[in-house]
Amino acid sequence: SWSPAAVVRADTGGMTIDRRDVEPTPLHPDLALLMSTSGSTGNPKLVRLSHENLVANASSIAEFLALSPDDVGITTLPLHYCFGLSVLHSHLIAGASVALTSTSVVDPCFAEALGAHGVTNIAGVPHTYDLIEQAGPERIHVPSLRLLTQAGGRMAPQAVERWNERAGSWDAEFIVMYGQTEATARMAYLPPAIATRRPGAIGVPIPGGSFRIEPVTDPDNVRQDRDDEAVGELVYRGPNVMLGYAREPNDLSLGRTVDELRTGDLARFHPNDGVYEIVGRAARFVKPFGLRIDLDALQHELSEFAETADMVVTGDDDGLVICAPGACAPALAAETIGRTGLPSVLVTVDTDSPIVRTDSGKFDFVAMMRRARATARTTTVNSDPGATPHDAANIAAVFATVLGRSGVQPNDTFVSLGGDSLSYIECSFRLEAVLGRLPPDWHLLPIGQLTPRRRRRHVVAIDTTVLLRVAGIFAIVATHMGLRFTPGGAHLMLAVVGYNLSRFLLPIEHGRARLAAGLRTAGRVAVPTVLWVAAGLALGANFGVGTLLLVNNYVGPRSHAGDEWHFWFIEIFVHVTLLITFVSLVSPVRRFERRRPYLTALIALGLLLLLRLDWAWMNDWYNLRFRTHGVAWFVALGWLLHQSDTRIKRLFTTVLMVATVWRFFDYAPREVFVIGGLLLLAAAREVVVPRRFAQLSVVLASASMWIYITHFTFWPPLADALGVRLAYVPTIVLGVAAWAVAERLTRLVVHQWTHRQVGLARHDVRIA
User: Fold this and answer.
1) Which backbone phi and psi does 302 adopt, to 5 degrees?
2) Would you call 515 exposed, middle or buried from its count of C-beta atoms within 10 A (0-12, 13-18, 19+)?
């Protein structure tokens, strides 16, 4: 289907151009480069790479390799191969040089070129280093050498250790890298210091990229490592992820069709070292000699060639094994070599033994590999990802709209897409309209597993935290306006904060993703507040610098008069969110929390309760209830409540709630209000209410932060004009309006910023 418009031929006699009469294909403006998928068999397809992809990956590689204008690389790999091209790009973007040669790494001329050009960096695939090892490593040891890099396939851990040690003795570094053409080139690298402990790992994500481990759907593929870390498919996100595949000319006019890369590799994460390790394949692809081979496609082709269905093709990154009882071994080996481009040493054909199956009737790939060669490794069979329900498009649209994300995939979850307590309410209500009643843990389930349930016509189940946020903000505004003294709303909402942090922040596996989520959650509250305070200061409002910096509950005047303490709830929200985020990044803490989530929350509550004792009062008992250290235990209480997943735990937590809240304020109505809300949350995580009431509650709960921020400004003039009673509802309405405007402006700014960054990246590529 790929009909070229022109064929260019170049030889010693010159260049000729053979132009064909072909209808021109329009190209998408973002399209910069087409790369083949490392010699895959099966239907031909190309990887569509953008200007942004190329710049991002070249810059990232230059950053983690610390390339500078003093560096000199050398062409050990062809430029039509993504690894070879990335060497050129990363050196050029750093202002470095590249020596051009077509000689083999074992050719004496190659060694001469290293010294003549002062080469500092040598790149190679595992086979490159095997050749150097056989010919004598000292031939590449020149005084200028500082860096050896390896990618294009898995290198044996023993070889990694050997080259790492050798490079160190040369005052150089040996860096293992991991990548795919679909990610422009690189996705991870292994720092030399960690390679001594984890020589089999692929390392850490490159700057700007991130990994997550997606559970596989085939239970046969689910394994655990020594630290009880689940094994799953490695999924990569970053600005270097391709636009998508091109399988026919019309695909060249497409823009971005994917936002993340499912690598097909099964991996696990080692939290002690912060590195990822590949342990197998989630699908039947292998990559020997740097060539990515689809085993199923190859098996189909070889079966047609040999005119037999009695054939199994298996293998790993060390080579292929073909089991075909009764077939002609030499002919089958020659055909395999011709179709894959592999050297004969990597192809093993077994025509004398029968095909082996497991007790369940599946092919026993491992047994056949072990039988065919002495040094076998296991492979994994392809897992069926399962069908997406017919409502998947509507579900994806909800996530894309609420979270502002494009390219939502069936394996994405609300948490993995960056959802938090502020977006949870709107998202859950919209999903209810699509699917009916949601499962309690829907925010942790892949989109593909969210299936339609029976819908109620006039009632709907909403999250209990929605009602508590509405009750809390109503009580806060009424109390501050002097309409009705109902204190305790903010402290109840602090417990809801802890409940939601346990739901949306702590389940995030990867440290970088958890850090980003924590900063995003704090920022969604801190940024609007700071902007509102800054605008107030510009207009002459009575705010201090402490309020602007969100530390006024410590540095402001020790009174609750005037507006000095207006934003204490916001300040505590930001402080505690950041504290939990950063503490949870500590590996021992994170591992303990994952194994003992309830005990972790209980310990946190116990430690924070110590800070409400008289030694921590700062000679100011009254304002202890407005300072972070004095009331952070409310957040821990909500956290503990969310982790109470058994009847015994809920009973114990309920007793603890009553015991810790009662008499804390020395004002029974406030304590009853807080305890009542917590008891409701402990008793029911969802409440069935009329649909119209639910719609109104969702809007008010979503806008609760903006109602809190703005009501101090809106209610005094409204009360002067209308009276306190009549001013209450307009104060709430103006807060909702401010939220609606802020949401619209935020989405507009994010949209414009994204397009501007892509445009700048394209411009930078053209300049480079």
Assistant:
1) -70, -30
2) middle
Long-range contacts of 604-613 (CB under 8 A, 24+ apart): 604/636, 604/639, 604/640, 605/633, 605/636, 605/637, 605/639, 605/640, 605/656, 605/660, 608/632, 608/633, 608/635, 608/636, 609/633, 609/660, 612/664
Round to whole Å and give the CA distance between 720 and 717: 5
| Exposure string over 410-430, b if 16+ CB within 10 A, otherwise e | bbbbbbbbbbbbbbbbbbbbb
Angle at 403 between CA 400 and CA 407, to 5 degrees: 35
Beta-sheet strand order (sheet of 312-316): 312-316, 319-323, 347-350
What sign results for the dihedral spanned by CA atoms 756, 758, 762, 767? Answer: positive
Taking alpha carbons only, the member of 234, 230, 226 closest to residue 261 is 234
Determine if residue 293 is left, alpha or beta; phi over 0 gives left, psi from -120 to 50 gives alpha, anything else beta.
beta
Q: Count Cβ atoms within 10 A of the Cβ of residue 54 and give its class: 0-12 exposed, 13-18 middle, 19 or more buried.
A: buried
**Displacement of CA 376 from its chain's centroid (Å):** 33
Q: How far apart are CA 552 and CA 564, in angstroms?
A: 7
Place of tokens 């996100």: 237
CB of 676 closer than 8 Å to CB of 708? no
463: helix, strand or coil? strand
Q: For tokens 């399988």, name the residue.
A: 247
Instruction: Tell me the CA distances in angstroms from 169 to 399, 497, 703, one per residue in order.
Output: 53, 53, 62
Residue type, 653: T
DSSP 204: E
Residue 378 dihedral angles phi and psi, to the nearest 5°:
-80, 155
Identify the bridge partners of residue 275 per DSSP, sorted by sequence position.
270
Task: Show Cβ contacts of residue 462 under 8 Å, excluding neighbours closer than 6 positions.
Answer: 428, 429, 432, 686, 687, 689, 694, 697, 698
pTM: 0.48
Burial class (CB in 10 A: 0-12, 13-18, 19+), 219: exposed
> Which residues of the chain fall below pLDDT 50?
38-42, 218-228, 360, 375-391, 559-563, 754-755, 757-768
Mind listing the pLDDT tens digit for each residue in 251-303?
A: 999 999 999 999 888 889 998 888 999 877 666 777 776 667 878 778 878 88
Q: Are 121 and 147 in contact (CB under 8 A)?
A: yes
SS3 annotation, 91-158: HHHCCCEEECCCCCCCCHHHHHHHHHHCCCEEEECHHHHHHHHHHCHHHHCCCCCCEEEECCCCCCHH
SS3 of 14-58: the string is: EEEEEECCCCCCCCCCCEEEEEECCCCCCCCCEEEEEHHHHHHHH
**pLDDT value, residue 229:** 55
For residue 355, give both structure tokens. 């095909």
Burial annotation 591-618 (CB, 10 A radius, 16+ → b, else e): eebbeebbebbbebbeebeebbeeeeee
H helix runs in 647-723, sequence order: 647-661, 668-683, 691-702, 704-722
State residue 237 phi and psi, 5-degree precision. -130, 140
CB atoms within 10 A of CB 4: 11
With contact defined as beta carbons under 8 Å apart, do 459 and 690 qualify? yes
* Contact (Cβ atoms closer than 8 angstroms) between residue 313 and residue 298: yes
Cα separation of 320 and 479, whole Å? 74
Q: What is the pLDDT of residues 423-480, one digit of tens each?
A: 776 677 677 766 766 776 777 777 767 766 655 557 777 889 989 999 999 999 999 8
User: Where on the phi/psi map is residue 307: left (φ > 0), alpha (ψ -120 to 50), or beta?
Assistant: left
Give the residue among 476, 439, 416, 500 at the shortest CA–CA distance from 210: 416
Residue type, 714: F
Taking the mean position of all CA atoms in its chain, how far away is CA 438? 24
Closest CA to 275 of 209, 197, 199, 202: 202
Q: Decide: 152 and 84 in contact? Cβ < 8 Å.
A: no
Give the residue ranges of DSSP H helices in 206-328: 295-306
